[in-house]
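# nightly structure sweep
# worker-07 picked up a monomer target from the shared queue
# config: single-sequence mode, recycle default, output format = structure tokens
# input follows
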Amino acid sequence: MELTRELEISKSRFRSVVDAAYDAIITVDQEHNITLFNRAAEYLFGYSQSEMIGQPLNRLIPERFRNRHDGYLHHFARSPVNSREMNERGRIYGLHRDGFLVPVEIAISKINVNGLLEFTAIVRDTADRIHLMDLLQKEAETDELTGLPNRRTFLDAAANIFRSSEEISLFMLDIDHFKQVNDTYGHDAGDEVLRALADAGTGDVRQKDIFARIGGEEFAALLPDTHLEEARLIAEKLRTALEQQNFVHAWRKVNPIPFTVSIGVAMRAPSEVEVEEVLKRADQALL
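# output follows
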């Protein structure tokens, strides 16, 4: 009687710890059917415990990953290793009840119970971390003021395109007398001019082009598969639109400010492998 009572206390303590865990805890039997599904797992995947006990684990795995996951479990079952940490398993995706993917990390262990294997997975939701990493990545690649690609992103993209395309043009753009704009209207208005130019440039270049702010009042556009004359037409169209204020921009705290730009166009020469060489020629061609 005392032993039975101790076992019940031990089971109750175990259930309390499992249900209070921050991470999802899921146990499956040798047939990969779920035998334990804690509260954190309910929250993470959208199913209740009663719905999942006895169900195949594959219900929680996106269809395109199921074969690979089954293969992983079979390999793990035969291996001498009894557990794998999260940093070894890496990030995978679970499938929520509503059909969307859940980025997770998984630590898995196995135990032999009366000759049968059981697998227990501790599943950690990494959505917040992934979101933060995406934001940090975007900040590293994007000009904060205009939302355009920054100089580093522009140069990296150009290096990739230079390896895959022969006929490449680009243009550099400089706001005329930008210091005078700041002195006359204030730096907030100057920032607004930069944002307006970013909107106009994004709207005028083609989808395959890359329009970026590369520093100060300097912008550049990379035009793949574009001959010099076509690039000049694109640049002139943008220059005219800016001069005539013929573009859409929701001006914030200032009225539309007239400004003009100078644009220099250059085409990659067959022997050139560095985008900086082409940028230099475009800079020299600024009119």
